[in-house]
Amino acid sequence: MYITRRGVACLTAALATVWVTSAAAQEFDWKAHSGETITFLANSNPLGQLLIDHADEFEELTGITLEVDSYQEQQMRQRLMTVMNARSDEVDVFMTLPSREGMQFASAGWYADLTPYIQDSVSPDYDADGFGKALMDAATFDGQLTAVPLNIEGPLLYYRTDVFEECGLDAPSSLEGLADTAAKLKECTDLTPFASRGLAPAAPYSFSAFMHNMGGQYIVDGESAMCSPEAKQALTLYSDLLKNYGPPGVVNYSFQQLTALYSAGRSAMSFESSNEFGLIMESGDRLEDTAIVPLPEGPGGSHPTVIGWGMAISANSANPDAAWYFLQWASSPEMQAKFALEGIAPPRAAVADSADYKAWLEESPVRQQWHDALAILAETGTSEIGYPIIANPESREHIGQAIGDMLLGTASVDQACAKADTALNELIARD
Question: The pTM is what?
Answer without folding.
Answer: 0.87
